[in-house]
Amino acid sequence: MQLKLENPKIFADIVTVISELVTEVRMKINQEGISLTAIDPANVAMVYFKIPATLFSEFNIDKEEEIGINLGNLKAVLRRCNTGSALTLERHENLLKIGLIDRIKRDFTLSLIEIDTEDKILPQWEFNSVIHINSDTFVEVIEDCAVVADACTFIAEPSKFIVEAHGLNSARAEFSSDEVEIHSGNSMARFSIEYLNKFTKGAKISSRVTLSFSDNHPMRLDFHSGGVVLSFVLAPRIEQDD
Predict the structure, then answer these.
(1) Using an 8 Å Cβ cutoff, are 21 and 71 in contact?
(2) Per residue in 73-91, pLDDT tens?
(3) How many CB atoms are closer than 10 A to CB 140?
(4) What's the angle, vertex CA 102, arms to CA 98 and CA 104, rounded to 5?
(5) What is the 3-state secondary structure (H, E, C) of 107-155?
(6) Which residue in 103, 70, 86 sits closest to 2, CA to CA?
(7) 3-class DSSP state of 101
(8) What is the distance between the alpha carbons of residues 157 and 159, in angstroms, rounded to a whole number?
(9) What is the topology classification, in CATH, of domain 2-111?
């Protein structure tokens, strides 16, 4: 396996985001690219990403590979990438050799780990409501809700999208179909702000995010950028109102 990525920033950003949810993961490398599907330890959220082979300047594999790796260690190495650095990845038995190439070539070696988990597949559901919204706007809305509560409610109608949170105090943001793209019936679901705050870091990947949800059903968030996919699934908070 010999891979080279001329602009590794998007890979580094994805690893940083995912490392807040899971620590040890199993990455798949095949002719289509690099992908990962994992569930957080609390079994509340799922994350998926894919970087297509076409984004690599070199993508040479003899067979499909699966590598178990500690994301904290990988993130620490990727932080050493400078602007303009190229990234190389090579597997040598139970080691992953990482090269950073700029003014000089620097090499790091990470031990691969055994991860005994079942293969996971990102669910494909039919959703009643699909909202396309600017990522930075979505970040602001979730940050507003975090000021007053630990969960927020998503409400969608054919021409309206609302995010609101209630504790002793409250926050509310309302959008019309002129401000966001809405494909929706009537839906309402409540979600943890702690997890949403982690997911919104996907704004580093894409300027747009797609929110898909139904009444009291897991929500899916998708960030897409030039063939790169970063997706999250989050279970709803089903409880009495605050």
Answers:
(1) no
(2) 999 999 998 888 999 999 9
(3) 13
(4) 85
(5) EEEEECCCCCCCCCCCCCCCCCEEEEEEHHHHHHHHHHHHCCCCEEEEE
(6) 86
(7) strand
(8) 5
(9) Proliferating Cell Nuclear Antigen (3.70.10)
Residue 242's pLDDT band (cuts 50, 70, 90): very low
**109: amino acid identity, one letter:** T
Give the CATH fold of the 129-217 domain: Proliferating Cell Nuclear Antigen (3.70.10)
Which residues belong to CATH 3.70.10.10 in the chain? 2-111, 129-217
Q: Which candidate, 67, 66, 52, 55, places its Cα nearest to that of 4?
A: 55
- Beta-carbon contacts of 79 under 8 Å, excluding residues fewer than 6 positions away, are 12
Q: Tell me how far apart the alpha carbons of residues 132 and 179 are, in angstroms, rounded to a whole number.
A: 10
Among the listed residues 83, 2, 15, the one whose alpha carbon sits nearest the alpha carbon of residue 47:
15
Cα separation, 56 vs 87, in Å, equals 10
- The sign of the torsion formed by the CA atoms of 34, 37, 40, 44 equals positive
The amino acid present at 102, given as its one-letter code, is: D
pTM over 0.90: yes
| Cα 106 to Cα 141: distance, rounded to the nearest angstrom | 41
